[in-house]
Write a structure and sequence with these properties.
Structural class: mainly alpha
Radius of gyration: 49 Å
Largest sheet: 2 strands, antiparallel
Low-confidence stretches: none
Order of helices and strands: HHHEEHHHH
Number of strands: 2
Number of helices: 7
Length: 212
């Protein structure tokens, strides 16, 4: 069979199977990708089928429409059409129900895929139990310790610290006043004075005076 005969047979079978009107562009678009038919081959094949009377041709303005010869099909009465409509309606309902079930199953599958496996859960539980045991051991150690500092001892330490900080501030202020008095008659800068005398300030030692 030649490529032309093959195109004619393929298009003839397609139109009979679909049994609906098509333009040459419709048939080309629907068959080109799967069967590799060219636009010219489709047009010639459909025109040949129409000339041979195998398919019907209708002209609407500048466009030609082709469809299968209806005389080859069994005539269907109103009762048969109604039965087909009922069957289509029932099948559509089934399709919707199955589609909904598939969506639900797909959601459940995604949820399961995002969950831990039994082995992963077992490992995670073991890890958490070990951490819990460690925390319990630390808690027991803290509760049983005998070297806790009594509140009165803490208060005593805080008062001593405050006293030391106050004395620090006092001495720093006195030293600053003394240097200011000396620098009034000193010919050089304060920085040069400190270097010559060999005094290191808190700032030089990067020491910050604590707050009370």
């Amino acid at each position: 069979m030649s490529k032309k005969d093959n195109s004619v047979g393929l298009i003839f079978a397609y139109l009979n199977e679909k049994n609906r009107p098509y333009s040459t562009q419709d048939v080309f678009s629907n068959l080109q990708k799967q069967h590799g038919l060219g636009k010219t081959a489709v047009v010639k094949a459909m025109e040949q089928l129409a000339v041979e009377g195998k398919i019907k041709e209708k002209i609407y303005g500048k466009q030609k429409i082709y469809f299968a010869d209806q005389s080859q099909f069994t005539e269907v009465n109103d009762a048969d059409l109604k039965a087909m409509d009922n069957q289509i309606s029932g099948l559509s309902t089934q399709v919707q129900s199955i589609t909904q079930s598939c969506r639900q199953l797909d959601a459940e599958l995604k949820a399961l895929q995002g969950s831990l496996t039994t082995e992963e859960l077992t490992s995670e539980i073991k890890k958490l139990k070990e951490e819990c045991s460690g925390y319990q051991a630390r808690l027991q150690k803290i509760q049983s310790a005998t070297n806790h500092i009594p509140p009165e001892e803490k208060e005593k330490v805080y008062k001593q610290r405050d006293a030391y900080v106050k004395e620090w501030k006092k001495r720093k202020r006195l030293a600053s006043d003394m240097m200011d008095a000396i620098l009034e008659g000193y010919p050089k800068s304060k920085k040069q004075f400190l270097e010559e005398v060999g005094i290191e300030t808190d700032e030089d030692c990067k020491v910050v005076l604590p707050s009370i």
